[in-house]
Amino acid sequence: MRILLFTGKGGVGKSTVAAGTAALAAARGLRTLVISTDAAHSLADAYGLDDPAGISASEPTELAPELFLLQVDAQKRFERSWADIQRYLLSVLDAAGMEPVAAEEMTVIPGAEEVLALLELRLHARSGRWDVIVIDCAPTAETLRLLALPEALGWYIERLLPIQRRLVKVLKPVLTRAAGVPMPEDSVFDAITRLHSELDEVHELLSGPEASVRLVLTPESVVLAEARRAYTSLCLFGYRVDGVIANRVFPDGDVDEWRAGWVAAQAKVLGEVEESFAGLWIGRGLYQPSEPVGVEALAAFAAEVYDDSDPVAVPTGEGPLRLSRSGDGSAVLHLSLPFVTRSQVDLARNGDELVVTVGSSRRLLTLPAGLARLRVAGAGVADGELRVRFRDPEGMTVRTGEEAR
What we know:
405 residues; alpha/beta; 12 helices; 43% helix; 22% strand; globular
């Protein structure tokens, strides 16, 4: 099963490209499901549905042969995954004297719709019903936060939750009497653990060899800069990027002076796109005479974008994180970090974790047992990747933080 995620700066046409890719895949006989994690739910509009509100929120709706659309019912999914936790939080806020309506607002997760859409992805990926699942993601910044969530929550679950659970059992009678605030029951901890387990499965799916991200951009300098940063962050968190689509490109030919200026400006940026994403497939979506709306129009648009390329081709080669052995017997951890210089990377060792910070993004990499027993012998950034060398501790000096850059 192939999973494709589309993201990009708001307004670049990522929903159009995602919807078109799904329509093209279905037209070629692949059973295709398209899901949106964007709260705007613009896919129904892109497909030209007369009554978007009438789309089923529980089952995929067939739009055309082999093409199905799912708009997640966030409220129902929220109640299924968050109900036990929310009930406890409401009891705490009630004890603190907060009004019920305000308390309910306080217990809703920011970005819940995007998270819950990913949980729906997990269910459909496990169903075996689909050849292709296309995900229309939220704009870049929200998508990056969303894709970083499973690992961040995993760190909390594995390290802090067991401690808190033991403390609550020991101190619950005292704290409840002293503070007047109810302490969480086992069902609350179980719900958090279950949510983490589901999100962990999602992370495995999206970082696996059958999944990849495609960046959609318009040929503008500001948009290109954001796409470059997104590429770096996606690699940092272990997601494969297998393509870039430059959308809304002015076609060449006889044009007036105003359009000629745009063609020249776009040509300059498109050259930078080719340089920035060398090695990745790059597609182009020309400015259309009219907005492509409807299954047939979107499939035709996507056919032009992909030209002779397979829209659902599985990426070849290794992912952004790999391990190799060098001639001196040391192990080298490779992490793709395109566009990053040595001064932008901070590296530290904390027990069996490697803490990698790039700008405002940080990833805690839990080392496999084979590496956890070794010491960091050195690290550097070269050819668009971070390389961390590990050796047997005998006779070696541990180098972390600034020294391990």
